Predict the 3D structure of the following.
Amino acid sequence: MGNLVQAELRKTTTTGLWWGLLIPTAVLALGWGLATGLLGQFFVDLASSSDVDEVSDFLGVTPDQWKISLFGIARAINVSTIFPLIFGALAVSGEIQRRTITTTFLTAPSRMQAMLAKMLVYILWGAIYGLAIMAFIALGVVLTSNSGQLPDAGGWAMLTLVCVLSSILMTMFGVGVGALIPNVAGSVVILILYFLVIENVLHFVLAYLEVPSVIGFLPNGSINGLTGSVAVDLFLSTAGVVPPEIEDVLRAIAGASGALDWWWSGLVFVAWAGVVFAGGWAATQSKDIT
Amino acid sequence: MHDGSGLIAVQNLTKQFGSVAAVQNLSFTVSPGSVTGFLGPNGAGKTTTLRMLLGLVKPTSGIATINGRPFHQLGQPGRVVGAVLEAQGFHPARTARNHLRVYAAAIGVPDAQADQVLGLVGLASAADRNVGGFSLGMKQRLALATALLGDPQVLVLDEPANGLDPEGIAWLRTFLQSYARMGRTVLISSHLLAEVEQTVDQVVIISRGQTMFYGPLDQLRQSQRKRVLVQPSDVNSLATALRTAGVHVEQLPDGRLAVSGVDAKYVADTALQANVSIYGIQEEQVDLEQLFFQLTSGQYAGYAPAPYQQQQQQQGGWA
């Protein structure tokens, strides 16, 4: 098994795909980080100048102390993890398209072991992407935010944890979809469409139908909930007593409408990734490689 | 795990792709120590059979084993069997050496083995070039290098001569023969008997997914029959005279007679007795290639082109 893991690791390091996708990831994360700080500053200025005393009262802190960057960071993580998702999707579909899957199966004791080794290596890559995403978001946010709006050390640690976790889970989800839809263009297009368009429309419809709690059980809803809920929790921990209506608004801003607690959200997405991977594994297991 | 016999056994193997029967009830065995040719026209089911043997395609029924075991029970398959299935299974942006290092890791052999097999197939100077820039012949060599990584006991090659230049084919022939002489098993497929005639000791000939001949190449050579082609002054008289003597005679479209089972002298003597003149006589040796065509003919055979007469018909319409 160790042999196969090393083989899979070498597959990923001997082509340029890992850095080819890491560059746009870093640019996107940095851009969101910068925008988060600038937008947050704009919002805080606006809030300070107008009569937002009421809001300040029940948040218990003045606007310049709002940890507004938390929401932007949560959103930035969600958007940036689309790249590890694509990286994962290419793991199996790329091998089938390039026909290297033949040699992969000829040199592995079983297809099951080849797939497991691949999954382990892509978990590692998911973690690397997650750390890079957090680093570039943090860079952007720190450059453009006042220190009062930044999370504290514990907050950063928590955000880094969920960012890495989110990135790993998205990569695993991608690996499963790429095995289920063994076509590079097909799997990538479907994933991007689903995560950026289809599910957002679904969220809107579910909110309109007044069943927003369903959102937290959908793939994108749950992975957003993982990061968004942590952001809201951190924000609220420095604020005072917040009425439930305002909390709902804050959740929506963080991209975690209808989401469960962060760890529940994570477990829901783990279940999704597990279902997709099992499907992809089953498809690969019985596939005739002609 | 496996018995280490080096034996390939295919028993009643059948594969149905939808309504298409790619392979039908195929059986043969391949022993170590010899090069076995797996022959048949394009579409006869050779590639499907080899892929079933290698666990890449699941048989509809029947079983194919290497060393007494199906492929997925071999444990470390890369150390038992090496396969060259197609010259396309490479990432174009990966170098030849990195390609081999990936699979050296998977098989569990030291990285030095990658350079060794590169040298063996004559690609040492191209080791650090991206495979995307390789010619078909170089890709074939790299595919063979990949197959040799685990120093396997059994070597399976699907049309390995594709894309190789005459020098490469000569080199491959020598290589495979010496590999088999070390007591290993070599199974090599081709759609051209002539291409492998000098390489193989045994042949399995299939057509339409079924075995047509299976045995030593020498046996196939001995089974070929001589024919005498004769141009007599009176075809019917000579044919009658020969048939009376119990000889098989066939009339050819060009007006000649094809006489089997006897030599030219016998035909000439018979003609003399029947008062028939002979304008031309010739002994014909049916070569292996023709025998191969006879064994495999029929599948996907096209019609002869129709005579060009469309214009005449049109003119007829005007008349």
Chain A has twelve helices and no strands.
